[in-house]
Amino acid sequence: MTARERIAGNVAGYVDDRTGAAKWMKKNLQKVFPDHWSFLLGEICLYSFIILLLSGTFLTFWFDPSMREVVYEGAYEPLQGVKMSAAYASALEISFEVRGGLLMRQIHHWAALIFMVGIVVHLLRVYFTGAFRKPREFNWIIGVGLLTLGIVEGFLGYSLPDDLLSGTGIRIAEAIIQAIPVVGSYLSYFAFGGAFPGLAFIPRIYIVHVLILPGIFLALITVHLMLVWYQKHTQFPGPGRTEKNVVGYPLMPVYMAKAGGFFFIVFGVTAFLGAVASINPIWLYGPYNPGQISAGSQPDWYMGWLDGLVRMAPPIETYLFGYTISWNILIPGLILPGIMFTGLALYPFIESWITGDKREHHLLDRPRNAPNRTAIGAMALTFTLVSLINGGNDLIATHFDLTINQMMWFSRIGVIVLPPIAFIVTKRICLSLQRADRDLVLHGRETGRLVRMPNGEFVEVHEPISAEKAWLLTSHEQIAPLELPEVDESGVRRPAALRNKIRNRLSRAHAVAVPKATETERRELEGHH
Ligand code: HEM
């Protein structure tokens, strides 16, 4: 034993005698994780969150969250002598005078964008593979909470510099708060500490942005990861993988090395983007002034769909008992997002109600084998995408030589018509893919080799697929639809007949599938070949 090993051993022994950590570490460091590239998406969220904490802490050393009016005398000539808030002036200082400041600002902003992409794509992987099913429903709900908080946190972040773009965004937030019936204007006065914009808002959202939300994030991410740990990770079906085991590599050393390396890849990509790609050049927008707005104002992408919904809303208002109800903001700004997020959070429960499936699931689905779920996802994505496109209606109109009216009507009609079309098309594609799988199992792979038979007929030679592949394509379960009869055995109508009828219908729609190839069918065809 070398001297170094002896010292390390002594230190480890000293710590273990006092904490008993060795047993715990041994058990947990050997924990096995399954391997699939899509399981890295959650890690991208985690690493960009760490980058956000580090770069954000750097920015707090110079950022001055104050609405105090100052006259700019800094290094950026075009704004010299302009009156602005201390917040905006300090953001300019970070950009032009603090060493590495602009790089840090850009890394922070890019990390926020990547964080949100990571969250959304991670959510889609969890959704389309059915990883949210029992026992992971709580983790799904925590995830929806993280998504919501991420949107709010990002919005508050780019509102802080108090430039013309961020002020415009806050103005929209004020309009949405005011649209809440009856209490809206009181809530707005409460949030802004008086009339808009007031002096209180920036200091308030600063505390929320740097302290309250990051604290909640830390707590929720910890619980999220503890649940992944405790419930174990799901896995795709494969040889030896069952609902009761996890096949993969141990945390130490395989995943420690992989995760460490991956952290640096995420950090490297973010730093590269921060170094070469300009993001949120606030000096070009100028300080916020409620009387001005710049052309082509765009929110960050994760807010774009909400902005797009508000932009396409028809001007409907009702005057009731002395109150104005602005449906044009209330519906796209609050009611629709409320329905979308509630639906998202409740989806695991809705699906298990429809299928009647209350069992645990640790093996993932291929999206094509759950056509209804996949189609619902495609429908929701299409709705969000049309809204997002309309969030950039002004820029799209100028770039593609269209009018704003054309864009507006495209999105108003598109947001209603395209999602159901996406549903039908996706469901059909899934069923076609199931049919292709069935053909593959029964008739083998098309080789592209044509053979002429003695009778002159041309046939293509098919090659049987491996037994492993055939097993993979047929190992999934096809759940039968629920049968909840309207009357019981003695002919008496069951209670909640209507609810049962709806459930039957939904369950039937959910269970539509191309019957997978059975072993008997395979054998019969083998004899035939
Ligand atoms: C701050 C944001 C988030 C972080 C840091 C995060 C992190 C992670 C990590 C590292 C994993 C394990 C690896 C993987 O499956 O990718 C995981 C799993 C999981 N996440 Fe997230 N996540 C976040 C947001 C979300 C969201 C928005 C949802 C869904 C609404 C979600 C739902 C889940 C579920 C259900 C699992 C278990 C998946 C399984 O076992 O297959 N997470 N998360």
Explain this structure to me?
It is built from 19 helices and 8 strands. The protein is globular. The longest helix has 40 residues, at 404-443. It has helices spanning 3-19, 21-29, 41-60, 86-96, 101-128, 137-159, 164-178, 184-192, 201-231, 251-276, 282-285, 301-312, 327-355, 371-391, 393-399, 404-443, 467-474, 497-511, 519-528; strands spanning 32-33, 69-71, 83-85, 249-250, 317-320, 323-326, 445-452, 458-463. It has a two-stranded antiparallel sheet with strand order 1-4. A two-stranded antiparallel ribbon has the order 2-3. Strands 5-6 form a two-stranded antiparallel ribbon. Strand 7 and strand 8 form a beta hairpin. Helix 6 (137-159) packs antiparallel against helix 9 (201-231). The chain is mainly alpha-helical. The chain starts with a helix and ends with a helix. The site of protoporphyrin IX containing FE has 25 residues, from helix 3, helix 5, helix 6 and helix 9.
Q: Layout of helices and strands, plus pairs?
A:
Layout: H1 3-19, H2 21-29, E1 32-33, H3 41-60, E2 69-71, E3 83-85, H4 86-96, H5 101-128, H6 137-159, H7 164-178, H8 184-192, H9 201-231, E4 249-250, H10 251-276, H11 282-285, H12 301-312, E5 317-320, E6 323-326, H13 327-355, H14 371-391, H15 393-399, H16 404-443, E7 445-452, E8 458-463, H17 467-474, H18 497-511, H19 519-528
Antiparallel strand pairs: 1-4, 2-3, 5-6, 7-8
Helix pairs in contact: 3-5, 3-10, 4-5, 5-6, 5-10, 6-9, 6-13, 7-8, 12-13, 12-14, 14-16, 15-16, 16-17
The structure holds protoporphyrin IX containing FE (HEM).
